[in-house]
Amino acid sequence: MSEPVTCPVCGKKAKTGSAIDCARHMFGTGDKVHRAWVEAQGLSFIDLLIEQATTPGNKSYIVLAEVIEKAQDKSRP
Amino acid sequence: MNKYSVINTHVHNVDGIAKVTGRAVYTFDVKLPGMLYGKILRSPHPHAKIVSIDCGKAMEFPGVVGVVTGKDTLGVKQGIWRRYQDLCDEQILPIDKVRYIGEPVAAVAALTEEIAEQALDLIDVHYEVLPSVYEPLDAIKKEAPEIHEGFERNMNVTRHIEWGDVEAAFEEADYIREDWFKCGGQAHMCMETRAAVSSYTPEGKLTVYHSTQSPYYTQGLLAGVLGLKEGHIRVISPYVGGGFGGKFELDGAVFCSAVLSMKLCRPVKIVFTREEDFIATKRRTPMSYYVRTGVKKDGTFCAREAKVFTNGGAYTGMGATALYLTGFFHSFPYRWKGYRYDGYRVYTNTLPSSSMRGFGAPQAMFCSEQQIEWIAADLGLDPIEMRRKNAHYEGYEVPGQATIASCGIDQCFDEIQKWIKEKGPLPSNRSIGISACGFMSGGIFNWFDSPYAFSSAVVTINYDGTVELHVGAQDIGQGSNTTMAIICAEALGVKVEDIKVHSGDTDHCPADLGAWGSRQTLMAGNAVKMAAEDAKKQLLEFAYAQSGSNIIYDLDIKERRVHSIARPERGSDYFDLVKKVLRGKEGQRIVGRGYYTPHRKGMISPAYSYMLQGVEVEIDRETGKIRLIDSLTAHDCGQPINHLGLIGQLEGAFSMAAGYGYLEYMPYEDGKLMNPNLVDYKVIRATEMPKVPVAEIDTYEPAGPYGAKEAGEGLTNPTAAAIGNAIFHAFGVQMKECPIRPEMIVNALKEKKAKEKKGN
Q1: Is residue B292 part of a domain?
Q2: Closest among B652, B681, B676 to B281, alpha carbons compared
Q3: Per-residue confidence at B570, pLDDT binned at 50, 70, 90?
Q4: Do B199 and B58 sit in the same domain of this protein?
Q5: What count of CB pairs under 8 Å joins A to B?
Q6: Poorest-confidence range of A72-76, B92-96, B199-203, B449-453?
Q7: Residue B537: exposed, middle, or buried by beta-carbon count in 10 A (0-12, 13-18, 19+)?
Q8: d(CA B418, CA B401)
Q9: Which residue range(s) make up the domain with B206?
Q10: For residue range B38-88, what is the model confidence (pLDDT) as tens digits?
Q11: Contacting residues for B479 by C-beta, under 8 A, at least 6 apart
Q12: Does pLDDT of B1 surpass 70?
């Protein structure tokens, strides 16, 4: 079983420990440090948010979840 | 047979006589020696920089005693979400920028209200007008003006709720429907407009009379913006002429009167005009709702997705809570395998939106309950049976959010079905619409960051057996004092007339979060019950020692009689016992204490009420005019405590909800409200009210005092959708905007006719 995903910024484990839950946590928190981390990955926090707001489905969360997973993989020894 | 002596009996309001004889003193009536009268200068612009303010001429005007602007304040940005400082975004007298038409800019104190009013014209404000934006979907565009620094694309707050595998649940659906809805704002329309009298003395103490839903919140918020200790501020609020969610934040009346009083060391009174109450307070949150729902052919609900933009106006207020609650109650009262809600609160240059009776749920239900009706029609299913099939039940867990400990919705469906059947065939211009919903009994949230218990009560028994009940719960006209007196009398075993309720004074009453979110009966009621039981225990300990019974729990007090539970005929007088106990305690009065803070009650509330609203509506096909003919409310509110109060609350909720459904329209043009008066803004009147009979569904809620839960706010939620559903059944047209106005019906009928013609 894979390890639970924790927030790359504050270390919080989101509800189910999945990357998508972690993405929800990052959007929900939305403070300067979380935004800055998203921007540092080459994404626009606000554009992702607007995309999520204006189109049906879960696209932005999925995009961010993939980035979080990659970052988590990189940080593992 | 009623197993209680006082609960659910016909008890008249404990303050009823004072009110009907005019003895009750509202903030509006308060007069203090040397009192001045204040008036507020307001911004004529929706968005502008304040370059300069010259108060010189106003100060010279005969009768003017003082003028204040933002520069006379500490400049603190305040808000009720004290735990999240980003959301404390409002300077009530802004220093450098205004963000909506009607925002306070300066305040004058004078010998009379008329002089203060005239002096406003002499204040010279130089503005630099900025570009404005009024709709949330415009405000999130890249080119939109920035309303608050640091809030990119004016995105104020986001909220997300999700459970289950939403996409997989949609895959299971045989039928998917999506709709866009638009819900308008609504004015709180309290009989008593916002009002305050502030009196600051050179000792550094401030006394404030304030028309508020929570004296404790007023005290805490004022301490923050004025730089005073909470204990140095006394808030008195004995009678309040309505709140409806609009009076538990700081308003211009209390803030400006306090700032003026501190500057002048004289009492200052500010009472808003009706126009000010419309344009310069807060309102129900306007929302745009996208709803996608997936259902099986047999009517089983599979998945729902909702995306909501709310027009937040210029400041946050309570809007962040409304944003969460609308998403949560949009799922109610049904079971969804997959549910996803994305809510976005957007700043605009309009009147701030906030909480209002129903707290985001009326908007949610307008969209949800109409779409469900249309789905049932599309699938050829009975809309009531389809709802029943998917409804909550006792013991159901809303995934990750709440556990339903009591639920009488099934009986509500029975009552509504019976009512419809009894009506029989209706004339061709009349039809029936129904709508279901559920609501909370107080919120578990502590965004105010209060260190105190959510509710507290102190019961003191005097030598003559009379009882002083001190509560922080606030009576705002909903009859809270009466409900607390009933609970106290029942728990202590005395009569309501033995109880004197003290509320609305922070110097003498314990802290309490106040009257919002239908919390008082459950939360303050539990605290009162605990305090009364504590006092009773002290009495019975003494009685037990005298009687020689086996254990203390063999004794009880009922209807002023102390008796053995096993042998009720053996007993003695309550008043005699009290006298003996006081003598035995060297003259100390008996004091019982109670408090309540919810623990382990999920994400939202300790308990949920359920209800169904049926309305019979007559519609004029030519003009689109709606007339309400009849209604039935089926309501599960647990164990009713105050029977007359319950009926009054449900009638009031119905009138407010119906007004939202088809009358109370707030049109804005360039950020300006076009109908800020009671001639052009239509509220439902006595002649337009149908009968509002109630089918009480009594359940037992374990979290509530004696099994009680919410009544009176939840019913604001279903009515607009019920009216929409009646129109749908009459003409087959779908009303996607609220309030439903006559021209919308006429246009929908024209469109339908044109389509039919084209089809033929």
Answers
A1: no
A2: B676
A3: confident
A4: yes
A5: 37
A6: A72-76
A7: middle
A8: 33
A9: 31-130+190-243+247-279
A10: 999 999 999 999 999 999 999 999 999 999 999 999 999 999 999 888 899
A11: B13, B642, B645, B648, B649
A12: no
Rounded Cα distance between A55 and A63, Å, is 14
What is d(CA B364, CA B101) in angstroms, rounded to the nearest whole number?
Answer: 28
Q: How far apart are CA B172 and CA B302, in angstroms?
A: 7
Supply the pLDDT for residue B117.
98
Whether the per-residue pLDDT at B760 is higher than 70: the answer is no
CA dihedral B240, B241, B247, B252 (to 10 degrees): -90
Contact status, residue B137 vs residue A6, Cβ threshold 8 Å: no
Is there a contact between B198 and A67 (Cβ–Cβ < 8 Å)? no
Q: Please tell me whether residues B616 and B578 are part of one structural domain.
A: no
Listed in sequence order, the residues at least 6 apart from B575 whose beta carbon sits closer than 8 Å to its beta carbon are B464, B465, B560
**Residue of B152, B156, B310 best to disrupt the A interface, most CBs of A under 10 A:** B152
CATH code for position B99: 3.90.1170.50
Instruction: Judge: B153–A31 Cβ closer than 8 Å, yes or no.
Output: no
- When pLDDT is cut at 50, 70 and 90, the band that residue B2 belongs to is low
Domain stop point among B534, B569, B596:
B596
Backbone angles phi, psi at B313, to 5 degrees: 70, -155
The number of domains in chain A is 1
Q: Are residues B264 and B120 in the same domain?
A: yes
Nearest to B292 among A28, A49, A56 (CB): A56
Q: Is the pLDDT of residue B553 over 70?
A: no
Q: Same structural domain for residues B618 and B670?
A: yes
Query: What's the whole-model pTM score?
Result: 0.95
Q: Which residues contact B444 (CB under 8 A, 6 or more apart)?
A: B598, B601, B602, B603, B604, B605, B606
Here the ipTM equals: 0.82
pLDDT tens-digit readout, B586-598? 889 999 999 999 9
Q: Specify if B159 maps to a domain.
A: no
B344 interfacial to chain A (CB closer than 8 Å): yes
Task: Name which of B503, B497, B43, B528 is nearest B238 in CA terms.
Answer: B503
Here the tokens at position A11 are 């270390």
**Percent of chain B predicted with pLDDT > 90:** 93
Taking the C-alpha atoms of residue A5 and residue A20, their distance in angstroms, rounded to an integer, is 9
- Whether residue B306 is contained in a domain is answered as no
Q: Which of B86, B307, B400 sits opposite A53 (nearest CB)?
A: B307
Which amino acid is residue B389, in one-letter code?
Answer: K
Residues B410 and B412: their CA atoms lie apart, in Å, by 5
Distance CA B118, CA B101 (A): 20
Question: Does B730 map to a domain?
Answer: yes
Q: Are residues B619 and B576 in the same domain?
A: no
Closest Cα partner for B711 from B581, B549, B463, B522? Answer: B522
**Most B-contacting residue of A58, A59, A64 (CB-CB within 10 A), to test interface:** A58
Of A15, A28, A56, the CB nearest to B158: A28
Q: Please give the Cα distance from A54 to B290 (Å, whole number).
A: 9
The β-bridge partners of B500 are B468
| R_g of chain B, CA atoms, integer Å | 27
- Are B484 and B519 within 8 A, CB to CB? no
Model pLDDT for residues B345-402, shown as the tens digit of each residue: 999 999 999 999 999 999 999 999 999 999 999 999 999 999 999 999 999 999 989 9
CA B337 – CA A7 distance, rounded (Å):
27
Q: How far is B365 from chain A (nearest CA, A)?
A: 20
